[in-house]
Amino acid sequence: MDPKMYAVVVLPLDQEDGDGFVAYVPDLPGCMSDGETAEEACINVYAAIAEWIEEAQETGQIVPSPGSAARRHRKLHRRMLDYIEKQAELLDAKEQLLNAKDSLLEAIEYKSNLLESRAKRIEAELAASNGSRDEAAWFMSKVSLKANRHLPH
């Protein structure tokens, strides 16, 4: 395999690292070299690529094809985007559930208020029709029991 088919990354070295440049090959783990200039680092890394491939073949290891690191990165990036999209969908669903819960609670409160106002009206009608206080209390307890069956506990 032609060593020049592999992508090479060249970076300057700090003074504490000896100045110069380092060149590494993302597709071939651990494959790197250095030089006083960027050009020298590239020439040296091409020799390192040939040695890396030869060593891998002698030991029966798989030699990654040129561009394999970029393909792995794209695949990982795509999976991360899919994960983020699924998380966004879950957050949207959670928000919809919370909105539905709020709507249900409002409907229950409205129904409860409606039942309470009806009960007061019936109680007033019973009192006006000269029904005894015990009859009104009995009737109201029945209305209350029926109303409570519709409320969440």
Automatic annotation (TrEMBL):
Transmembrane segments: none annotated. It holds the Pfam family HicB_lk_antitox. This is HicB-like antitoxin of toxin-antitoxin system domain-containing protein. Residues 13-70 form the HicB-like antitoxin of toxin-antitoxin system domain. InterPro entries: HicB-like (IPR031807), TA_system_antitoxin (IPR051404), TTHA1013/TTHA0281-like (IPR035069).
